[in-house]
Design a protein that fits this description.
This protein is mainly alpha-helical. Helix content is 62%, strand content 9%.
């Protein structure tokens, strides 16, 4: 059983999957950093200097006690955070598209085998038989 497990773990598919998961985590962190630190300040600049993460619709205001502690937290729809998530999704899609496109360019194009010459059509064969019968 231990030998079977070792053979399973050492197959190429499992190793490839492990590498892909680790690499996806690293790429995810990189893309999130790119969106949060580079893209969102640019988008916020063109949107009048606002941060989308702060956009929300408050349903219930927070209740604060006299000593400054929050007794009832604020209840709000945070649609700005959702906008950030959409921008993140589009950016991830763009990055993956560029990576896959670059990868596909590095692959050698498949050389198609030359097509075998086509034989005569059914009509041509029947015409040939007819001509042979006439002779």
């Amino acid at each position: 059983m231990l030998k079977e497990f070792k053979n399973f773990i050492m197959t190429g598919n499992v190793i490839d999957l492990a590498v892909a998961v680790i690499l996806a985590g690293a790429v995810g962190l990189m893309v999130n950093g790119f969106v949060a630190d580079i893209m969102m300040p640019i988008v916020g600049h063109f949107a009048g200097g606002m941060d989308f993460a702060d956009l929300k619709i408050i349903l219930t205001e927070a209740s604060v006690a006299g000593d400054g502690t929050v007794t009832i937290p604020e209840n709000a729809i945070r649609y700005g955070s959702w906008i950030n998530t959409l921008i993140n999704l589009v950016t991830v899609g763009l990055v993956l598209f560029i990576i896959v496109k670059a990868y596909n360019k590095t692959k050698k194009p498949k050389v198609e085998a030359p097509a075998s010459p086509k034989g005569p059509s059914q009509e041509e064969l029947l015409a040939e038989i007819r001509d042979l019968l006439k002779k």
